[in-house]
Specification:
By secondary structure, this protein is an alpha+beta fold. It is built from 11 helices and 10 strands. Helix 1 packs parallel to helix 4 and helix 7 packs antiparallel against helix 8.
């Protein structure tokens, strides 16, 4: 299908895309259905991804990365979305957890963890959400009390991506509950520390291969040197990293919506009803034309946001616009495409069915779309 040519990438990016696409088709696609059944990917896919250079590529070379720009990470996200490989928590690992370590971690922490994250030897997670605190991060009740040269960590976290397979987790905790947001800190917790336990992966509506689970901290003694940045600055650090985190959701939303349209165009050309291809019906053509147009608008907007990010000019309100509008659009596209598949659109073996189920949570995590609108309204 014709579309506006993308100007975001250069030749080396496109060569990298070819490599990623081959990897996805050979190492991920054949196994994803099985991963969905077991509620997590195979552990060795992380090592394979690390060996291929797909993990933490934007990290500096001295910490095991390649030192490339974020467009390389965008390509990995887009290619995973193209085959609906939602079980891969690589984006969170490489572009959320690793940057926190790089930007706020001590040299000791960076040397200890980043090279192993880049190789896939260690899987990273971040633990913000609690049973009683989702988008409201100020409502966090997990505590970290200083005791000599350690913090004693107590509490629980829920809906943690990469939670089941993770080897290290950045925990959002209250070091001074009386100060609210200003009493929030970030601690790097090694999952081998005594008192740290994981529940089994949660049974979700979609993203079934993603190992999302609950984490528990029972008097976990975390070395004080595992504090990220300064005590009490955790909330500030979280806010500084959120624009890129939210843009990642938009990147995945648009790539996923593009794939859904491609699958649906192919299906409606093959499938017949009333003696002709479904594509021959005006309603089908017009509906797909509408979706194609809206996704093209989203594509141009997201690519421009990535450019602004590279120039360090992406503001939080614009990132919130991208997150809310593109994830809303993604689900609209999925729902319309399911409709055009008819009864087969409700069968789990069809990619569109899985993609429809997987898309729903995009409007919830990373800050709900209602929160995004609130943040945008503050910039008016």
């Amino acid at each position: 299908m014709m579309s506006i040519p993308r100007t975001l990438f250069e030749e080396d990016h496109e060569a990298f895309r070819d490599t990623v696409r081959r990897f996805m088709e050979q190492e991920v696609a054949p196994h994803h259905a099985r991963w969905e059944e077991q509620s997590h990917v195979d552990r060795d896919i992380w090592n394979k991804a690390g060996a291929a250079g797909f993990l933490c590529a934007t990290m500096p070379e001295e910490y095991g990365g390649v030192g490339v720009d974020k467009r390389f990470s965008v390509i990995v996200m887009e290619e995973a979305a193209r085959i609906n490989a939602t079980g891969l928590g690589w984006g969170l690992h490489s572009e959320i957890v690793a940057p926190y370590l790089l930007h706020y971690g001590s040299e000791i922490l960076k040397q200890k963890y980043l090279p192993k994250m880049a190789s896939g030897e260690m899987v990273g997670a971040i633990a913000m959400t609690e049973p009683g605190a989702g988008s409201d991060l100020q409502g966090v009740r997990t505590t970290a009390v200083r005791d000599g040269d350690h913090y004693v960590l107590n509490g629980s976290k829920i809906f943690i991506t990469n939670g089941y397979l993770c080897d290290l987790v950045i925990v959002v905790a209250k070091t001074d509950p009386a100060k609210g947001a200003k009493g929030t800190s970030l601690l790097v917790v090694d999952t081998s520390m005594p008192g740290f336990t994981k529940a089994k992966p949660l049974h979700k509506v979609g993203m079934k291969a993603q190992d999302t689970c609950e984490l528990f901290f029972d008097n976990v003694r975390v070395p004080a040197e595992n504090l990220l940045g300064e005590e009490g600055n955790g909330f500030v650090y979280l806010m500084q990293e959120l624009p890129w985190e939210r843009l990642q959701i938009a990147v995945i939303s648009i790539a996923s919506a593009e794939a859904a349209i491609d699958w649906t165009v192919a299906y409606t050309r093959e499938r017949k009803a009333f003696g002709q291809e479904i594509m021959k019906f005006q309603n089908t053509r017009f509906k797909l034309a509408e979706l194609k147009t809206e996704v093209q608008i989203g594509r141009v907007f997201v690519d421009r946001c990535v450019e602004l990010l590279l120039e360090q000019k992406l503001d939080p309100a614009t990132a919130s616009m991208a997150k809310y509008w593109c994830s809303d659009l993604q689900f609209k596209v999925m729902d319309e495409c399911v409709q055009l598949h008819g009864g087969y659109g409700y069968m789990w073996e069809y990619p569109i069915t899985r993609a429809w189920a997987d898309a729903r949570v995009q409007r919830i995590y990373g800050g709900t779309n209602e929160i995004m609108k609130e943040l945008i309204s503050r910039s008016l």
